Structures are given as C-alpha cells and as structure tokens.
Amino acid sequence: MAVLHKILPMKDNNNQADIQNDQNANVPSEDTANPGYTDHDSSSDTPDDIVIDEDIDEEGEELSPQDKIKKLRTQLKTAVADKQKYLDGWQREKAEFVNARKRDEESKQDFIKFAEVSVIEELIPVLDSCREALKHGEQTTDAQTSEWLKGIKSIHSKLLATCQKRGLEEYGEVGDNFDPNIHQSVSSVATDKKELDETIAVVLQKGYRMRGKIIRPSLVSVYQV
Questions:
Q1: Are 191 and 197 a contacting pair, CB within 8 Å?
Q2: CA gap 38, 40 in Å, rounded
C-alpha cells in the first residue's frame, strides 16, 4: 500500500517576523492615540550639540592660556572700575543727603532766631517806656508814686531778664568810646579835656544787639575837643 506523504511547507521565520512588524506598525502608539500627550522629558528644546564656552574667541578657536589670563585680567579690571563707580556714586549721594539735612537744620535754626528777633524788636519799645517812666518818677517824692514806680521797675527788670535769656544785649553807657558801628551820634559836646575826646557824653537811647547783630544803635552825644 503506497503511503502518500503530504509535504507541508516549512514556516519562514523571517516572513513571520515581517508580518508581526507590519501588524505592530498598524497599531497606534500611546503618543499618537493621545493628542494631548507631551513628553516633558524630551531634550529637543536644548540640543546637546550647543556648547557655550567663554574660552572661545570670535572665530570659534579655543583661547590660549595667555589669552585666557588676559581676558580674566580685563574682566577683573572692568569689575573693579564698576565697583569704584558705584562706590563713588553712593558716597556722593550720601554726602549730598548729609549736606541737605545740615542745610535744613540750619534753616530751622535761622527761622527760630528770626522769629525771636522779631518778638524782641517789638518788646524794645516797652523797655524804653518803662525806662522813661522810671526816669521821670525819680524826680518825685510822692509815696503813692513811689509804690507805682516799684511796680514799673519790677516789670522792667523781669522783661529785660527774659529778653536777655534770648540773647539780647543792652549797651550804651556814658564814658564809653564812641564807635560809629554801634552808636549813632546826634550831637556833640565841647570839652577841653583831651581824655574825653570821642567818648560818650550823654545816652539819649539805649542800644540793643542780639547774637552779635545790631538790632538798634544807641543814640548818643559825643565829647569833642
């Protein structure tokens, strides 16, 4: 009995692998299936082939050690110059600020002094009136007038003391040497005494100065040979 052998073709492993690859190619990947997916780990934004090197010259050649040292010295010199420029600017601004505060303080002090001088100038006529009242009162012997003069004298003394605390100085006495810078001569008195020449004979009105500034010159009569 003849036996028929059915010859089956052998499977080609290479063809089978190709078929499997084709099948896999038709299956969408996770990235393709999900349009919103983004690979954040991708390094495509910063290519690895880009190298930033400060030791490369404009032509792309690496600097020599001497050129590197020269470049570092230049950078150091620039940094020192910038530091000095910023330091000078800061010191200048600080000095201007200090001077501005000093000027402001001086202006305040000048304003206070001016205000005090203005008040004192208004009080000087009151001192003059008190002095005139005392001068005329000395010529009377009335008891009631004497009591009244004591009150005037007390007021004059307290008012003068208050003004002196603010820097007011009273000057102009008989026998003082005449000084045209602080005295105003209104008349002359003849004398044959040489030692009295150019001295004050009569004080018609007291003079006042405040912190070295003449507020009102003294009115006087001067001896002249």
A1: yes
A2: 6
So where are the chain's domains? 63-166, 169-225
Nearest to 190 by CA among 218, 222, 151: 222
- pTM for this one? 0.51
What is the distance between the alpha carbons of residues 34 and 69, in angstroms, rounded to a whole number? 55
CA neighbor of 116 nearest in space, from 161, 154, 164: 164
Query: HSE of 170 in the Cβ direction (CA atoms, 13 Å)?
Result: 18
Could you give the angle at the alpha carbon of 204 between the alpha carbons of 188 and 128, nearest 5°?
170
The fraction of the chain above a pLDDT of 90, given in percent, is 33
Instruction: Give, in words, the CATH class of 169-225.
Output: mainly beta
- Please check whether the domain covering 63-166 is classified as CATH 2.40.10: no
- Listed residue (215, 127, 132, 125) closest to 167, CA to CA: 215
* CA 186/CA 82 separation, integer angstroms: 71
- Segment 83-129, tens digit of pLDDT: 888 888 888 888 888 888 888 888 887 777 778 888 899 999 999 99
